[in-house]
């Protein structure tokens, strides 16, 4: 009985970790016969887990969404990760999710082993949540976008640009991206036949069309760069004359990509709403650098250098 229970728990863990398992592969992972696998699947169904089976050469098993939430099987690191995520969600960013996150966190902490509860409580007591001014997004919208991305299902929605212009979009979603304060949907715009990045709080009436598509891959670095461009007036490309590990340790916050050029220099791509802010951010790195773009930044740095040079004067005589 103990071996059967352990095997069924192992089966549950595999079904939760993978969307769909071919029957022979699942039986091989559990080191059982197909007949024993079918009996274990039946045991899970009796416990309320909705396991769907498909027949034929490509047949297999998958754990479907049921009418009730069955218990989840988590290891130590997964439990701590969920607790940290719930604590982060409780600080805002998604509309109306704060109280729900706190309720779920309380339930999780109640069943956590003491060794894990101490780790979670330490994080909770030593962390201060600072609420921002940025708009929040609807959790149902995030769930819809994430599911469509996972299932490779086309989305239809209305979108409002920064200038207020509204348009209808048909998109093949690739990924959701978060900068910590805003959510973005990255996808292939079928009408414009190009990659686009959409702020989720500007989407209206998103709808999964049911039409499937073959997933595409965006150009390297597109996701990271595209979430900065929509919120930045200026995009800067700068060579920093220092090793990558030195730059990565000094450059603060999200919204930038750093690429090693050689052992002594790297390429920085970042953004800002003002030339003054870009000059300050790059200048405070304390590194030699060369500006490639935008030309306005190079010009502003020249004026700033002349102003600073002119501000130096011999000390006043007493």
Automatic annotation (TrEMBL):
Gene3D superfamilies: Winged helix-like DNA-binding domain superfamily/Winged helix DNA-binding domain. It comes from Streptosporangium canum. GO terms for molecular function: DNA binding; DNA-binding transcription factor activity. PROSITE patterns: HTH_DEOR_1, HTH_DEOR_2, WYL. The lineage of its organism: Bacteria, Bacillati, Actinomycetota, Actinomycetes, Streptosporangiales. InterPro entries: CBASS_pafABC_assoc_protein, DeoR_HTH, HTH_11, PafC-like, Tscrpt_reg_HTH_DeoR_CS, WCX_dom, WH-like_DNA-bd_sf, WH_DNA-bd_sf. The keyword DNA-binding applies. Pfam families: HTH_11, WCX, WYL. This is Predicted DNA-binding transcriptional regulator YafY, contains an HTH and WYL domains. It comes from the Bacteria. Residues 4-59 form the HTH deoR-type domain. The keyword Transferase does not apply.
